[in-house]
Amino acid sequence: MTTKAKFPVTAGSIVVPFGHVIGNEKWRGSQIAQRLQGKIRLIFEDGLGLVDFHLSNRTCIFYISEADLVAGDEFKRRLVQFRNASSLGGIVIVERTQISDQYFLAVQKLVVLELGMVLLPVANQGEASQLITQLVREQSKDHDSNPFLRKQCSQLAEPSVFRTVQQIPGVGKTKALLLLQHFGSIHRLCNASVEELELVVGQTVAQQIYSFLCS
Hints:
Layout: E1 2-4, E2 20-24, H1 31-36, E3 41-45, E4 53-54, E5 59-64, H2 66-71, H3 74-85, E6 89-95, H4 101-114, E7 118-122, H5 125-139, H6 147-155, H7 159-166, H8 172-183, H9 186-190, H10 194-201, H11 203-213
Parallel strand pairs: 1-3, 2-3, 5-6, 6-7
Antiparallel strand pairs: 2-4, 4-5
Helix pairs in contact: 6-8, 7-8, 10-11
């Protein structure tokens, strides 16, 4: 379900209605937008500037496609410009394919180590839409208040979320399942400390995960 936003977007101050996502106008008609229809309320705005999607008043998403990676450094300038000008939490969703895989380590270094943002790889826009849906649902619930709900959420996680966690260095299928069962969501996993990760996967893998996800 897509509607045109009726309120102005001012630089550095985004108000995202509960249960909604504000998307950059350039994504109207895209595969991501089509896949999000019926799952979340998507509002298009043409004044978002650098950002592709706003999940909440505090969190936004940048989408880096295979074509962006192959084309050059424009996406890097966009990310650096955002980080220098904003205190919002940034999540970078990047298409990791056979073609773009050669650029992935450099992107990881920039996003995670230099800019301190979260990096989540996906195969395509379809997987990205599932990941965005999951993130929105996680932010709309208080998982701490209901441990049973957290466990249910991990069991019912979208396949794309499971595949994304699997791609973290040192993880694989078994550890991905353990991590999602323990933390309940990819949002909580991305914000976990090394000590919290060690309780699930041990010291070596915990450090790998933390280095991959966090600055």
